[in-house]
Predict the structure.
Amino acid sequence: MDYSQRLIRFRQRLDADLAFFPISSDLNYLTGVPRDVPNFGAVLHPGAWLEGAWITPRHDPVLTLPRMTAEFGGLERLQGVQMRVLGDWDDPASLVRDILKGFALPPKPRVAVSHWTEGETLIHLQAILPDAVFVSATDILRKMRVIKSEEEAAVMREAGRITEAAFADVIPLLKHGMTELEVIAEVDYQLKKHGSLGPSFTTSLYNSGPNHELIFGDREKKWHRPLHPPVSVLFDFGAVHDGFCYDYGRTVSFGAPDPAFQQVYDLVMASQAAGIAAMKAGQVTAEQVDAAARRVIADAGFGAEFRHRLGHGIGMDVHEPPFLTKGDTTVLQEGMWFTVEPSIMRYGGFSSRVEDVVVVRPGGGEKLTNGWQSLIVID
C-alpha cells in the first residue's frame, strides 16, 4: 500500500492544527502501523495514553510508544515512521509537550482525534492544551476509506480465500452431538492454520430447530449444548489478512433437511442474490438495496424473522459505514464494499443465513467468495 500518498491526501484534507491517532484501524490505514490480536481485558503499560501518532498539515507522523509496547510489540522495527519511545520511568506528559513544541501550534489549536482515542488520552491532552478545540479525525479518514482500490480488493480476496479454506477444513470434522464450543474452537484454529492472525471478530453460531432453542448472546450457556439433529447451524466468522477483516456466513443442516428447512434456505439465498443484483454503482441507495433483498423474504411471509439490516460496510474494521439499511440514503459508488447477509432466524424452527463481502460495480455487486451455494448437510 502507498502510505505516503495516503498521508499526503489526509494532510491536505486536515482542517485542524494537529491530529492524533491511537493504534487502531485508522492509524493502520494511514501509516501501516499494525494492530495486534485484541484482548478481552485491558493490558496497560505506563504512559499507555500516548500510544499513537501525532500529525500536522506540515509534519509527517511522530509515533509515540511506551518502551514495552515498542519492544515487546515488535514496533521498534518499523521503517519510515519517526518514533519517540517513552522510558519506563519517564513522564509521558513531558514527552508529548516536547513533541507539540516542535509543531509550533497556534493559541487555541484545533485538534482532530480518532474516534478510537481513549478518554484518558483526551483528559491528558486537555491538561496540556487547555484551550484546544477537539474535532473528529475519523470523519476525514472515512471519506478516504469508503472507496477501496483494486490493490485493496486483492488483499480482501485473499482474506476471503483464507476464510473459505478454513471452512473447507471444518466441514469434514462436523459430527452430530458436537457442542457449539467445539465447532467454534475448530473454526478459530483453522483460520490461524490457514494464515489468519485470528478471527476478525468473535466467531459466532446461531443454531435452531424444533428441539433446539435459538439463543442470542449468553454464550457461556449455549456454547456447551450438543448439536443433535434436526438442527440448523448458522456460521458467522471471518479471517484477518494484512489488516483487512473478512465476514462470512453459511448454513449447515445436521440431519437431512425437511421441505420447510429447504424453503427457508432457498429464500435466504434468493434474497442475497436480489440484493447483490441491485448494487449498481451510482444508481441505487443503501436503503434501496436493503429493500430489494428484504422484499424476497417478506413476500414469503418471513419478514419478521429477518431481524437485522442487510449488511454493512467493511474493510480494516469489520463494521464500517455506510450500512445497507432503511434510512441510509448513501448512493452506492463503485469500489464500496459491503457484506450482504440476509437471514431468517426462527425461535421455533429452522433458521438460515448467508454472508459474503461484495464490491459495488456498475452492473451490480461482485461477490468475493462463492463457495457452498447449496445447503450443506451433515448426515
About this structure: Residues 63 and 83 are 5 Å apart (CA to CA).
